[in-house]
Amino acid sequence: MEGVYPVQPVITEQELRQYIHVMDINQAVRSFIYAFGGCTLNLTRYGDRRTEEVVQTIEHLMDYSIDSMTPAHKVFHFSVMRAMQSIFIHNCLMSLQGSDAAFFYMRDAISIIQLLRIDNAESASSLSGPERSRRQRLYWQAYIHERFLAILDYRRAILPPLYTLPEDDPSVPIQVHEGFNQIIKLFRLLDTEFLDSWLDSQGHNVTSTWVEAKSRELEGDPEADARELANLSMMQRADLTITREWLRTLVWRLAMGQTLLSSRSSKECLSLLFPVRLSQTLRQQVSSMSRQDIEVHGSSITQKLFEITDTIADVLIHVPAATLDETAFRIDDFLFILDFVLLFPQLDKTRRGILLEKLERLQTMFPEAVSNASSPNLPLDLQSPGANDPWYQVTQSKTAAGLEDLADVQGQIPELPRPDARVGQLATWNHISRRLSKATFGNT
What we know:
By secondary structure, this protein is mainly alpha-helical. It is 65% helix and 0% strand. Helix 16 (324-342) runs parallel beside helix 20. The longest helix is centred in the N-terminal third of the chain and has 25 residues, at 129-153.
């Protein structure tokens, strides 16, 4: 109830206890409980508690659920429980890097949601208020997960926004209700136009006007947002804060793909340096949260932080700062976030390798200097050792190539000044070099 229900508020504690009571005599319920158990372990065992034995248990419970799931014959009993079973299985598969199977079970859940006709207001009106609200939360749960998959795996989303946010339900704690509604509002910004632009390699719909408008939507009303966040738990705040920054990064990447960015833009959303500024604010935000409040969100929050960190790394590599002192501040913020992300047990080898490659690339740009040193500024090698990994094409950021194109087009990005024999610059250069070298040693 602490680690799963606030982010997936559909099956209540009372229902679960009833299900557990009859699971020995009801195969469908037993199959569901396996999935529920696997998902609960997946979202509540993190850090040092996420041992290899725990991961194996999660996979075994998931497999038991799949093997015992009743297939859809001519007479098929579909229910809220059955839809949530597929969502729980999806959750486990995402953490186990089973992307294709995870997509299959998300679509399975969506099929049941459509069979339940949750999107039909007239049909839903015949239900009791609490049951109607619960089914609305189920619908939005699938909507959020499907939108995330659309971005992560470049897949089409089929669920439109529901006609209403979940109605008030006295049985749901107000904090859970408010937090869930806030995350829905964020994911509603991933509308059809946004997803079409993301999937369209040409990005025909992405203009400066669109970027500014979407950025304003994401910024919202700072005072109102602060009041709403104050009523939520730190776990909910972590999800909302990091998701918002992730979405801002996606908008920035779309703008970059259309060469709409400038190092001199007065508008943050159109500035080449936006990810650098983001690294500063994200560091402040993460520092105020516990790892538990962040890691409880599982593989989805790991992926969001990976994409933010990967984008920041590309900007550090391809958009040099005007001074060495500024470079040192940028590197320090980046390494703080990188160290934080690399400790996530859900971070798979491919994504870990991508981040460490870019860390090593930064290190080659700042070899320790004894007297007069220079930055080699070598081209980024996009053909990493993980290129044969099936996940590689999905996870490898397109940002680096786009930044290189922007640098060529604009010709106004200031070059990184080379350190001379003066003590101050040399000391700063070597400070950067040692920070990077220490980080590489600590994380490889």
